[in-house]
Write a structure and sequence with these properties.
six-stranded antiparallel sheet; single chain; 8 strands; alpha+beta; Thiol Ester Dehydrase, Chain A; 151 residues
């Protein structure tokens, strides 16, 4: 269930809040193939299930950047920000792809709000996120995302 904050003051006050976990999201071959089409990244470890069975991961895996891009929908399950005019994905401070994400597996986001600092016409928010891989002790991805919210 999402935490809701209304306006920049409530967002500032939420710094340090554990946002919990998103729901599990299944990674399908169709999603991987669609991402490959969108990015022109057709490496066989992603898009050729038969060849990938003989590869280093025993089957096809999601692109690291696909896993990273799924932070957006998973994060939207955790935090609802009202009373702002605009939200901007400002970038990333650190990203690590710790474990491959096999096609057919499930991932979810565990996140917390880090530092919230004032910027022109708004605030900058650091979000510490870990993409968990169901059944694995290691995460699929660890990232610190930077967002800006404007009044």
């Amino acid at each position: 269930m999402a935490i809701t904050v209304n306006g920049l003051d409530e967002l500032r006050n939420a710094a340090g809040t554990d946002l919990g976990h998103s729901s599990w999201l299944r990674i399908t071959q169709e999603r991987v193939d669609t991402f490959a089409e969108a990015t022109d990244d057709h490496q066989w470890i992603h898009v050729d299930p038969e060849r990938a069975k003989e590869g280093p991961f025993g089957g096809p895996i999601a692109h690291g950047y696909l896993t990273l891009s799924l932070l957006i929908p998973m994060f939207s399950e955790l935090l609802n920000i009202e009373g702002v005019s605009m939200a901007i994905n400002y970038g990333l401070n650190k990203v690590r792809f710790v474990e491959p994400v096999p096609v057919g597996s499930h991932i979810r986001l565990a996140a917390s709000l880090g530092e919230v600092t004032d910027v022109a016409n708004g605030v900058q928010v650091l979000v510490d996120g870990t993409v968990e891989l169901q059944g694995s002790e290691k995460p699929a991805c660890a990232a610190q995302a930077v967002y800006r919210y404007m009044a």
